[in-house]
Each structure stands twice: as structure tokens, then as C-alpha cells.
Design a protein that fits this description.
Blueprint: E1 2-3, E2 14-19, E3 31-35, E4 42-48, E5 75-81, E6 88-92, E7 113-116, E8 128-132, E9 169-173, E10 254-255, E11 259-260, E12 311-316
Antiparallel strand pairs: 1-2, 2-12, 3-6, 4-5, 4-12, 5-9, 6-7, 7-8, 10-11
């Protein structure tokens, strides 16, 4: 847990930040404790599940599609009177999915994030105040001509998943899908920032590769020239050029309470010795990892980007 009271200067507010690590809910290694500050009247919680990893590319020929970007976690917000909850809450922030190095591997999904009144690994709904699902897998792996695609977005949570939220107000937002990897003749697909209220993004796909030319990883777009101070453009990895290796995607870009960015995809490889592909980048908290750039039998696939860890803010006033 991190205490943000020295950074966020709202008078009378207690701001605490919890984030995930390795492991899973079932191991009970991630339970953290929040205790209600004295004298507060309302509690605001915002939680995001762990993001899915990006996807590895495929290296079974001289041409290759890039791996897809990973899906972000879903987001849930709860506002509740302090008198409606116990003095102690238990938080389990989901781990992000680990990116694979195996040709054509889907990778790993993110773990759900939850806030409960008892640290029960089964997460019984009637003990749950907040639940945010982790970034999902699925989709299709890349082929020698097409890029990989992401699966369905992380689902919203309903009152059936967290009945204690009915004592206050809540909202839940589906996660964002990662973008598609580039084909053997295209760059990874760019990603547009979500406009649903979601504060995290998926990752972008890796660039494709063929026996003469490689292509860049997908970028994450801004909202326009006037918005770049808050929402910068994040570029994908550069493609390999003859024997010059491709570069990895960009990672760990976060604007707290505005937008956390997923990892971008790596650039594609060439068939020239030394012209290796770029790795996918790790997503910032709650976001998807970037897809690996397209490899080939000369220059094999590098690691796909890890998904970002899940997190919870609890703000008491």
C-alpha cells in the first residue's frame, strides 16, 4: 500500500493506493488491509483488474504477423457512506499476465481485483464490496501472413458480483481490447484512447515482417494536438532495417486519475542476420502489454509485454 496524503493536498482526505504483484488470489499472497480513518463520512473506491499480456509473434517462416496487444482490466467504482462498511477492508489486487517467449503463444490473462470484508480466497459475493475483472485472453494467434487478434474485453461487474456495493452507488466499465498485430505487410494497428470513462488502455500489436521489409509496432493515439500535455502519443517500436535490430515498444506511461497507457508493440524483424524483432512493452497498472514484433526463422520471436498489475484507490473524506 502507498499513502498519497503527502502528494494529494485535498484538505481532510485520506488517500491510499494498493497495487498487485506476482501470484494469484488463490495463493493468499496479495491480501492487503485498509482501516477506516477516524471521523470520515464517505468512502470512494476505484479498482482495476490486472491487464493481460501481449501476444508473441510467430517464427515458422520468412514472413510473420505481429502479436496482438493485451486487453486491459475492467474498472469498477464504488461510493458508499462510511457507516455502511466495517472498520477493516481486505484488498487483493490482481497480478498482470506474464508475456510469453514461445512462438505463437497467446500469453496470460490478468487476475481480478477485489475489495472484501474478509480475506476469503473464494471471494463469496456477499462479502464483496468491489470487484473488477482481469484482462482476458482469447482471440487468434498470428500466422505467417496475418497478425494476432485480441479476445473479448474484460467484462463489467454487476451487483450480483458485489452485493455490498448496493449500500452506496457503483459503476463498472468493461476493459479495452488490445489492438491487432500487423500483417506480414503492415505495421501494428494503432489504438484509440477509450471514451467510456475507463482510465486504462489495452496494449498495441507488434509490427509485421516479410523477407524484404519489416514494420513498426502500433502506437497509442492522442486526443488531438491541444490534448498532448495530458494524453501524449505513444509510439510503437521501430522496425528492423537490414541488420539493424528493431526496437521494443514503449512502457510505463501513466497519468494518475487521467489515463494509464498500455505497452506498445515491438517492431518487426528482417531476415538479415542481426535484424531481430522488438519485444512488446509492459503495460502500466491495469493495462495490457504490447505484442511482440513479427519474427522469422532467422531472427526469432522476443518476449511479449507483461500486463500491468491491478490496483485500488481508496479515498476517505
Amino acid at each position: 500500500m502507498l499513502d498519497f496524503n503527502h502528494v494529494l493536498s485535498t484538505p481532510g482526505a485520506d488517500v491510499q493506493y494498493f497495487f498487485g504483484g506476482s501470484g494469484s488470489v488463490a495463493t493468499l499472497t496479495q491480501w492487503q488491509t485498509w482501516r477506516k480513518p477516524r471521523g470520515v463520512k464517505f468512502i470512494y473506491l476505484i479498482g482495476v483488474g490486472g491487464g493481460a499480456s501481449g501476444m508473441a509473434s510467430i517464427n515458422t517462416g520468412t514472413t510473420s504477423g505481429g502479436g496482438a496487444g493485451g486487453n486491459s482490466g475492467a474498472q469498477t467504482v464504488v461510493m458508499i457512506p462510511a457507516m455502511m462498511i466495517p472498520d477493516t477492508l481486505y484488498i487483493n489486487c490482481g497480478a498482470g499476465g506474464f508475456g510469453s517467449t514461445i512462438s505463437g503463444a497467446l500469453g496470460n490473462g490478468g487476475i481480478q481485483t477485489c475489495v472484501t470484508i474478509e480475506p476469503n480466497p473464494a471471494i463469496p459475493p456477499n462479502m464483496t464490496l468491489l470487484l473488477a475483472t482481469g484482462g482476458t485472453l482469447g482471440g487468434t494467434i498470428p500466422t505467417i501472413t496475418t497478425g494476432g487478434t485480441a479476445g473479448a474485453a474484460a467484462a463489467v461487474s454487476t451487483i450480483a458480483n458485489m452485493p455490498l456495493a448496493s449500500r452506496g452507488f457503483f459503476n463498472s466499465f468493461a476493459g479495452q481490447q488490445g489492438s491487432t498485430g500487423g500483417s506480414s505487410t503492415t505495421a501494428g494497428i494503432a489504438l484509440t484512447l477509450p471514451t467510456t470513462g475507463l482510465m486504462v488502455t489495452g496494449g498495441t500489436g507488434g509490427g509485421g515482417s516479410n523477407n524484404t521489409t519489416a514494420f513498426a509496432g502500433g502506437s497509442i493515439n492522442s486526443v488531438g494536438a491541444l490534448g498532448q500535455d495530458f494524453y501524449p502519443v505513444i509510439s510503437g517500436g521501430n522496425s528492423a532495417v537490414t541488420s539493424t535490430p528493431a526496437t521494443a515498444g514503449s512502457s510505463h506511461i501513466a497519468r494518475n486519475f487521467i489515463m494509464n497507457y498500455g505497452g506498445t508493440g515491438g517492431g518487426g524483424a528482417t531476415t538479415t542476420a542481426g535484424g531481430v524483432a522488438g519485444a512488446g512493452a509492459q503495460g502500466s497498472p491495469g493495462c495490457g502489454g504490447g505484442g511482440a514484433g513479427g519474427g522469422n526463422t532467422t531472427n526469432t520471436t522476443l518476449k511479449a509485454g507483461d500486463g500491468g498489475v491491478g490496483f485500488v484507490y481508496i479515498i476517505s473524506v
